[in-house]
Amino acid sequence: TSGKKLKIRSYPRFESGEEERLYRKQHLAAAFRVFADRGFDEGVAGHISVRDPILTDHFWLNPLSQ
Fold first, then answer.
1. How many CB atoms within 10 Å of residue 46?
2. In the chain, at which end, N or C, are there fewer CB atoms within 10 A of the end residue's CB?
3. Is residue 21 a contact partner of residue 51, using CB atoms and an 8 Å limit?
4. pTM (global) more than 0.90
5. Burial code of 16-34, b = ≥16 C-beta within 10 A, e = fewer?
6. pLDDT of 18-58, one tens digit each?
7. CA angle 44, 48, 52 (to 5 degrees)
8. CA separation (Å) from 60 to 9, 23, 25, 57?
């Protein structure tokens, strides 16, 4: 090991559900791009889902085979 401390970013605080929703959508889109760049975009290999912070019984996920 290098002996360096691992820095883990904390989850930000938001003033509104809409702000958190935007943050989650932007990070989800980025995660889709990273997975696709690494070849995890076929079938369920790149499954990522995120819960909507406002409608908590809703989830966002990448469309299968698109």
1. 17
2. N
3. no
4. no
5. eeeebbeebeeebeeebee
6. 999 999 999 998 988 888 888 887 766 677 889 999 999 99
7. 135
8. 23, 13, 8, 10
